[in-house]
Amino acid sequence: MVSLRSRELLPESRYVWRARRPGHTHRLICFPHAGAGASAFAGWADLLPPEIELVAVQPPGRQNRIAEEPFTEVGPLVNALVHALRPEFAGGFSFFGHSCGAALAYELASALRARGRQGPEHLFLSAQPAPGVTGVRRLHDLPDEEFLAELAALGGMDPELSQDADAIGALLPLLRADFALWERHDPSPSGPLECPITVLCGESDSRAPLTAMSPWRTRTAAEFRIRVFPGGHFYFLDAVAEVVPAIAETILAATIGRRRT
Description:
Rossmann fold, about 15% strand, disordered N terminus
């Protein structure tokens, strides 16, 4: 039996929070959205089967790393993760990222491929327009009031938090830094990955609509799927009981398929 403590998502190092699963056969490595930390995935562990261990990445500038400056360039962040997550790449693993976290998951998978390293067996990309998609409004350089209004419209900000001027003042620089990191980033041309990609999105997401998600198809030479859920940009917060089992089912089905071949 898995103990209660082993199902808790706990910090283990600067970059890694883990919900230990003794005897697991696969690892799901998750990347949080702008302004969020590893605890965004705290509720996922209990929804995963015992075969899958949950690892959440903790970038600098949030929660237990609040005193650290966030990255301002994608390259150094990816390089840091290639080294920091090396132990997590032993055995089978997949990536999940939401919004900016999806962009990071893709860049890390591309970096591992470029280095001749083992990459994820599956890439789950949530609510992030594919590279090269135009028409996505830049937010990071908007005036404070307009920037916060845009974030509120996306639905990812707790109503109580939005009324706390001190909390917003502390969080605003990190949010701007995260959006700036990816809105200024120009992905370098690269060939399609070899792992399957599943994109997930909310049916009413104005920032990452289905038309902006479909072009991810060109980024893999393997299977490509789209899963649409009710809700907007932060659909997964309300649909976690549907999203996590769907991810687990995809991972386990692929594992069973490999065993049969």
